[in-house]
Write a structure and sequence with these properties.
This protein is about 85% helix and about 0% strand. The chain is built from 3 helices and no strands. The longest helix is centred in the middle third of the chain and has 115 residues, at about 60-175.
């Protein structure tokens, strides 16, 4: 009979020891079952800490495991940030090279366009200059022709003046007789 009482007492003690853990576990299960009702983002929007609930164990290995998990998460975060930073720098370098290449291509196009415009302008100026020179040559030829006509007229006028002088001399000679 004592044995039966001892077994019943031990069983009762085990139930009493685990009753707190079981009640917390039941509450957690209720929360997880009603997750759609519970709006975690609104409730914890101003929270800055991570709360971890674990069963109490007799050894300190559980706390070490949590610290290891936090360290692991921290390292994963650092690795991810480092990888993203490397990708960002590579992307920026590629973008910079691409922009530089596009800028150089644009400069080359502008040089070609400028050269074509300059050649076109030079050709047009040469045409205008040739036309002007042609007109000037025509005018010079016309002026030579007019000059030749003027020289002929001056020569004719000189001959007429000589005749008039001779006639005047003859008239003076007649008047004096």
């Amino acid at each position: 009979m004592n044995l039966l009482i001892a077994i019943m007492g031990a069983t009762f003690q085990k139930v009493m020891d685990s009753i707190l853990n079981l009640s917390i576990r039941e509450n957690v299960l209720l929360i997880s079952e009603n997750e759609s009702i519970f709006k975690r983002a609104e409730v914890f929007k101003d929270s800055q800490f991570l709360i971890i609930i674990t069963e109490k164990s007799s050894s300190g290995s559980q706390a070490a495991t949590v610290d290891e998990q936090i360290s692991s998460l921290r390292q994963q975060l650092v690795d991810k940030v480092s990888m993203l930073e490397t990708q960002f720098v590579a992307s920026m370098n590629d973008t910079q090279k691409d922009l530089k290449r596009k800028f150089q291509d644009q400069q080359e196009k502008q040089k070609v366009n400028f050269s074509e415009a300059e050649n076109s302008l030079n050709t047009e100026l040469k045409k205008q200059l040739d036309a002007t020179v042609q007109k000037m040559n025509e005018m010079f030829t016309e002026m030579k022709s007019q000059n030749s006509n003027i020289e002929k007229q001056v020569a004719q006028f000189s001959e007429k003046m000589k005749l008039i002088d001779e006639i005047n001399t003859a008239v003076k000679g007649i008047k004096s007789i």
